[in-house]
């Protein structure tokens, strides 16, 4: 987990929260380039949490920033688990944010069926949770 005081970590969370898609992309790409050049990493960890316990993915979802969410879930340095994606997807549903929901739904479909069975899904037609 990254340290909250780390400048890059704060920048990633702020960029995600405010919907600065290019900023999120650049911060994530910085570590990929540094790794290839054998430079020390900048501690950009998309899985780290801010002082409220939120990841950059959750902050971008809360703000309705579908483009940022797409960058985060598709970037090779982001290894969000099924639980984190599921939480973000249901946050998008509660906010009636169809664009962000679709990005997260697609990301969730890439997981194996055994991982998906552990979580209930929302039956939108009935607006209730059902076990699958």
Automatic annotation (TrEMBL):
A matching Pfam family: Ank_2
InterPro entries: Ankyrin_rpt, Ankyrin_rpt-contain_sf
Record protein name field: Uncharacterized protein
């Amino acid at each position: 987990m990254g340290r909250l005081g780390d400048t890059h970590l704060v920048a990633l969370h702020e960029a995600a929260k405010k919907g600065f898609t290019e900023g999120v992309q650049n911060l994530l790409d910085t570590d990929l380039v540094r790794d290839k050049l054998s430079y020390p990493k900048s501690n950009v960890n998309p899985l780290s949490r801010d002082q409220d316990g939120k990841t950059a993915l959750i902050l971008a979802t809360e703000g309705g920033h579908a483009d940022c969410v797409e960058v985060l879930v598709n970037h090779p340095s982001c290894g969000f688990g099924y639980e984190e994606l599921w939480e973000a997807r249901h946050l998008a549903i509660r906010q009636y944010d169809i664009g962000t929901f679709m990005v997260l739904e697609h990301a969730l479909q890439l997981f194996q069926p055994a991982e998906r069975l552990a979580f209930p899904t929302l039956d939108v037609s009935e607006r209730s949770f059902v076990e699958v």
